[in-house]
Structure formats: structure tokens, C-alpha cells
Amino acid sequence: MSYTVNVYGREVICASCVNAPSSEETYDWLKVLFKKKYPEADISVNYIDIDHDENFSDYDEELIEQINNNELFYPLVTINDEVIQDGYVQLKPLTKWFEKNGVQ
Asked: Is the peptide bond before 39 cis (omega within 30 degrees of 0)?
């Protein structure tokens, strides 16, 4: 099975996440981390710039609207279109999701 990790973010750091890594830093960290932690798994990590990218899916538009309405924070991480974390992203919830779904 393949897994798609999307990191939604902006160039500007979230006001509620001042001491947290930026969205792009979170994307870079996850890209390297998943390759090392799950080398056999088919995991693609994508960065979605919510201010500059185009051709958003309806699901992307829905998440971006929630971010713009302060219902969700960025960086926002989804795995296979399931919201896992927003704001200050930490490793444990992400690895728990993969382990729960049989990725070793």
C-alpha cells in the first residue's frame, strides 16, 4: 500500500506556533524522517503552499478554509487525507498512525 503525507503551510510562521518549526522545515524533517524510519514503505511526502499552489482538490480547499477560519492551524499534516496534526507537529502521533496501519 502507498501512503501520501501532505504538509499544508505558509511561508509565514503561524502566530500560535511562534517557537515551532516553519511549515517548510516540518516538510523537510518529515521527508527525511519517514525515509529513515520506514525505508521499505511507499511513503510520499508533499508540501502544499496554501497561498501559492494551484489546482487544489475539493478536500484541499476545505482544509485551507478551516485554516483561514482558524479552525485548524498550519503546518497541517494529513496522511491519506486524514488529518493527523496541526500547529506544533510532533513525531509520536505520526508514527502511531503508521504503526496502527501496519507500517513497520
From this structure: no
Percent of the chain with pLDDT over 70: 96
CA-to-CA distance for 56 and 100, rounded, in angstroms? 29
Q: How many helices (H) and strands (E) in the chain?
A: 3, 4
The candidate with the shortest Cα–Cα distance to 3, out of 27, 24, 34, is: 34
Q: Are 59 and 50 in contact (CB under 8 A)?
A: no
pLDDT of residue 19: 76
Residue 93 lies in a domain: yes
Does the residue 103 lie in any domain? no
Coil, helix or strand for 78?
strand
Residue 13 sits in which domain range? 2-98
- What CATH number is attached to the domain comprising 28? 3.40.30.30
